[in-house]
Design goal:
The chain has 138 residues and is α+β, with helices and mostly antiparallel strands. It is 24% helix and 20% strand. The protein contains three helices and seven strands; from the N terminus they run E-E-H-E-E-H-E-E-H-E. The longest helix has 15 residues.
Length: 138
């Protein structure tokens, strides 16, 4: 039937919501190449990222000096032992961090070229590192 009112365009649904823009999709896997590095777009086995190549290819220096310190700020009063001075060699740093965490019996995280161990473990860490032949300050 006929209506007395002229036809009105209905507003699109959810017109009162702001427009949500999706970020561009990242390619993670290609059937012809396998896994793809999200940073450079090359296959993961042939990654060309400068940071990855530098971290893996830089040799350990002949003399490594570790610096120990305690931090409490920004951690709700919790004490954290920070070990700084790791060389830029990812496999070496990961292996040594794992060994220190296991021998101290505590958790920790590797951030910004420094290892953070939960608790005040300076004496234990100093003993372990000097036994391995590294120079320790702090």
């Amino acid at each position: 039937m006929f209506s007395r009112h002229p036809p009105v365009d209905d507003p699109p649904p959810f017109a009162h919501h702001p427009v949500v823009v999706k970020p561009p999709e990242r390619l993670v896997y290609r059937s012809d190449r396998g896994r793809v590095c999200p940073a450079c777009g090359w296959p993961a086995s042939e990654c060309r990222c400068a940071s990855r190549q530098q971290a893996e290819s830089e040799p350990n220096p002949a003399r490594i000096v570790f610096k120990l310190r305690i931090e409490r700020t920004g951690r709700a009063g919790k004490t954290v032992t920070v070990i700084d001075g790791f060389p830029r060699n990812a496999p070496f740093a990961a292996a040594l961090a794992q060994e220190l965490k296991r021998s101290c019996g505590t958790g920790g995280a590797f951030r910004d070229d420094a290892l953070e161990l939960q608790g005040d473990l300076r004496d234990r860490v100093r003993e372990l590192l000097t036994r391995k032949g590294y120079l320790v300050k702090g």
